[in-house]
């Protein structure tokens, strides 16, 4: 090849080289791009697909959590949640079982060991001393309790627990001594048949305690056999009790995918975020006094879909919302400004160790970092540094001792209001503290029944004038000092206590104050719901939904808080059928199960022909939800009573009879089921007599005899039930002779037996025990009217209506009595 040819080829090669390089680069980038697109597509598909639709998480146990969450587990070990319950072993039993003895009410209990097991020799259900094996321990500090298993069949699987009873003989873990845990306000010896006895229903672990001391608790009570088949996934309050069943979370964590699930996130309960309610309500499932609405609650479920918290009722909370009975923390905390400003439990408590995050005042000043130590200084608290008066929690979260040795702080986090104490007789932290050091109360403090401030308040409420006078004196002293320190114009915001106190004392101004409070959305929801429950007696069935109290209740059916809406539904059950239908049928679609099931319960009394179509179908759907709630208390008479009343209102009389009989079977010693069944049998007798009369008029002798046939046996059974019910009511009335409601029940039970003089005595006793009780006055007036003494009935009713804030039914009764007496007067002496 010539030089010229080689030069030409070289030139051509140099010209085509960039094109080859560009072509190579194109294919390389195309390949890379394809990989990226494919990878992106795979990632997108992986992100999009996530967990299968409808995947249900299962409980997998704490061992599945420890692998990735070791620090949290280390904090958890030894916490109150970790030690909430355990089997009785040498590692878990804290009490002295070395032949220790405790004598209480003449019964000497001996705690001992035998063959490596723990026993107590004490009074059993038959009233005789016997040995009982301790199977489980309960709690760790400040007390530990012990449990004995009863009614365990030989064939019960090992993982199932029969009936456990919690001993009242308990171990004080701080003082290292045995003590007897008496029921609140019950200091006398309990009869073995009493439900408060350690072998009675009130001390049954399966129903009273288990749900909040173990994880994934399934009560599993069999009504037919009366046997519990209780199970749990973990014996204590473990990870999944708060975070929810963890199988899907573990599945996602171990997957090769770089994503969590696009819909379920971590596949656990969402306890963080800007809204504090999910976490607070999760804690509230155990840290609240509540009733169940639906079985099957798991972490992350809405509180009001599964529970209804106790409101600020008499003997449970004071009128200003301070704790009185054992109510735990939730009902207090949701009253507080802290809750309404977004504070949650974990802001103060380590959720895994359950300990406070800081000691002393730092717990509060960690957030309240105002200039120049505005609060943690003498200029604010006016007390010596280090004293109780200088402690944030002692002033703003005073404690009340429950279970003899367990002080619990009031979580409403309130400013002390001695001015309200002077006005209403409520408590305040200043008096509670200074009562213990006041020189003038030394003699009274020696009384064994006045150990704590709570005892003083109870004695004052019972009407002990000496106690009341001393409290008033110190309340005034505290109020004067507050004026002196903070100025006479110190912050004294209007408080819902005044409206609730007016309702509790039946003040003539109660209705106006309650209405004003209900309409004030700035008040805590729990207080407004309580006001609604108080005002329900003022609902007039003759009033339209556009007027008065009824109008106010209908308006709050759209409130944002489920507890307020539910209270309004309950209050409206006293309205007319037309109002109930118009107001509550739409509520059947309320997003909260608590609200819509309450609406269904109230609507259940409405005849089907007044609803029809989609309304009737929807009612039946929601009633099925309501009926499911009865399984939560199927080991108690109340669950079966609830189903019986519902069945009776729907016309299913045979179902109602079965439910009442089940109520008697599961709790033979409880009042209520026999009386309810007796009224049902009376209804069956009336229907049979009506059928017989119709058959007689038609000349059908066979049908008449068939209708009359069951009446003698029904009548015999009805009378037997009423006699048995009377015996039970008389027993209860002897136990609590100063309880007006018990005397009312006794009066009506005696009346059904034809004991007019005894019935009148009991009803009059109820009225005299609480002359300001409109219920007692109404019961006595009705009795007088129905037994031929309308003049006496009118005298009682007129006096109440004149001096108290009278409910609608009392005003209606007064009008009816006046009309009756007027008619009798017009008819002349013969009519009388």
From TrEMBL:
Pfam families attached to this UniProt entry: Cytochrom_C552 (PF02335), Cytochrome_C554 (PF13435), HEAT_2 (PF13646)
TPR repeat start and end residues: 637-670
Domain of life: Bacteria
SUPFAM superfamilies per record: ARM repeat, Multiheme cytochromes, TPR-like
Gene Ontology MF annotations: nitrite reductase (cytochrome, ammonia-forming) activity
GO CC annotations, alphabetized: periplasmic space
Keywords for this protein: Coiled coil, Membrane, Signal, TPR repeat, Transmembrane, Transmembrane helix
Phylogenetic placement of the source organism: Bacteria, Pseudomonadati, Planctomycetota, Planctomycetia, Pirellulales
Any coiled-coil regions, as ranges: 678-705
Domain Cytochrome c-552/4: 206-244
Protein name: Cytochrome c552
TM helices/strands, residue ranges: 26-49
InterPro entries to which the protein is assigned, alphabetical: ARM-like, ARM-type_fold, Cyt_c-552/4, Cyt_c552, Multihaem_cyt_sf, Multiheme_Cytochr_ET, TPR-like_helical_dom_sf, TPR_rpt
